[in-house]
């Protein structure tokens, strides 16, 4: 599978990427298909080839992030020693994915520390971007209900 240099694997040695991709499984999913559920045991890391995946949290299944650009990755919980996925992944359209088994990826990362570090830095970047997205969402929600006396210890006057 070819990815542009600006994607997840840019800057990693060709041999390293080839080893990572050696056991990749290409899967096709229908709209509405659940890839994994929040709380499921972490087994795989995924790369979107085409389609649209929504990451959902909680019983109501609120969408917290959308994966809809080729090369975007999800299922990072499997690579950082989290025993369970932190969200559910559901296809919002017909979707093609590359599925990488976590034990295989972890072996390759450990066998090539230099490229493994770059790989894990990319995982950290994904997590960081999603955290910043959450901060922005929380911040904009807080601005809607802004109390001008918040944090001052003063009581707001009745109008």
Please, could you describe this protein's structure?
By secondary structure, the protein is α+β, with helices and mostly antiparallel strands. The chain has one domain: Jelly Rolls. Helix content is 31%, strand content 25%. It has three helices and eight strands. The protein has helices spanning 14-21, 102-111, 113-144; strands at 25-29, 34-36, 44-50, 53-57, 62-67, 73-74, 88-91, 95-101. The strands form two sheets. A four-stranded antiparallel beta sheet has the order 1-8-3-6. A hairpin with a 4-residue loop joins strand 4 (53-57) and strand 5 (62-67). Helix 2 crosses helix 3. It is globular and about 50 Å long. The N and C termini lie far apart (64 Å). Mean pLDDT is 86; it is low at 1-6.
Structural class designation: alpha+beta
- Say which CATH homologous superfamily is assigned: Jelly Rolls
Quickly name the level 1 CATH class. Answer: Mainly Beta
Please summarize the sheet with the most strands. 4 strands, antiparallel
Number of helices: 3
Biggest sheet strand line-up: 1-8-3-6
N-end to C-end Cα span: 64 Å
Order of H and E elements: HEEEEEEEEHH
Parts with pLDDT < 50 across at least 5 consecutive residues: 1-6
> What level of helicity do the residues show?
25-40%
What's the CATH architecture? Answer: Sandwich
């Amino acid at each position: 599978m070819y990815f542009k240099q600006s994607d997840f694997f840019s800057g990693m040695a060709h041999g390293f990427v080839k080893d990572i991709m050696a056991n990749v499984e290409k899967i096709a999913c229908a709209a509405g298909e659940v890839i994994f559920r929040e709380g499921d045991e972490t087994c795989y890391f995924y790369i979107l080839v085409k389609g649209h995946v929504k990451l959902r949290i909680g019983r109501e299944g609120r969408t917290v992030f959308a994966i809809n650009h080729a090369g975007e990755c999800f299922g990072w919980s499997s690579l950082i020693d989290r025993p369970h996925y932190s969200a559910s992944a559901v296809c919002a359209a017909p979707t093609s994915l590359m599925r990488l088994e976590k034990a295989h990826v972890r072996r390759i990362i450990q066998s090539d520390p230099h490229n493994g570090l770059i790989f894990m830095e990319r995982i950290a970047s994904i997590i960081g971007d999603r955290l910043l997205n959450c901060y922005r969402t929380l911040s904009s929600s807080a601005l809607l209900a802004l109390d001008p006396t918040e944090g001052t210890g003063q009581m707001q006057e009745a109008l």
